[in-house]
Amino acid sequence: MDTQTPEPPPEARLIKEALRRARLSAREAARRAGISETRWRQIANGYQDVGKGVRVPTTGPADTLARMAQVAGVTADQLRQAGRPDAADELAELESQAAPASTAGFAGDPQIDAIATLLATLPPEAQDEVLRRVRRDTPPAAEETDDTRTRHRRAG
Asked: What is the pLDDT of residue 152?
């Protein structure tokens, strides 16, 4: 019976350490990355139990690893240094898609940047739902007058 545990690959150690520093559970991280907790743990530990005490080395596909890295706060450069340029490229693509378009008056706003960064950690369907809710609850700026804004402030 082979009970030897394979060493995790460098990218797995990197993500596991980043997750620990972020004080985020594997369960929550997996949810945010849109994968199962079991799959997250297999990739982060670098092995998969196949039964009867046998563990086989496991590495994540580039797209999955990129989502995991994004959630854990690992950069594309760190993934490249860990020997996963494929995942680094996927992560760069994810981040470019999630980058908010500059809106007049908000460019460089640290709160907007923080919200956009947090939004990027969610699976695409969750991002869409959040944006739908924000759009639904936000009155169009052009229709809002100074008097309306004053009434909102007094009421709130």
From this structure: 47
d(CA 20, CA 75): 15
- What letter represents residue 97's amino acid? Q
CA distance readout (Å), 67 to 49, 73, 122, 130, 136: 23, 10, 9, 18, 28
**Which one-letter DSSP state was computed for residue 141?**
G
The single-letter code of the amino acid at 69 is: A
Per-block mean pLDDT, blocks of 10 residues, the chain (156 long): 78 93 91 93 92 90 94 93 95 79 54 74 77 74 48 49
Structure tokens at 84: 């996963």
For residue 48, with 0-12 CB atoms within 10 Å meaning exposed, 13-18 middle and 19 or more buried, which class applies?
Answer: middle
User: Whole-angstrom Cα distance, residue 123 to residue 47?
Assistant: 25
143 close to 135: Cβ distance less than 8 angstroms: no
CA 105 to mean position of chain CA atoms: 26
Structure tokens given for 151: 């009434």
- Please indicate, yes or no, whether the overall pTM of this predicted structure exceeds 0.85: no
Extended strands (E) in the chain: 47-51, 54-57
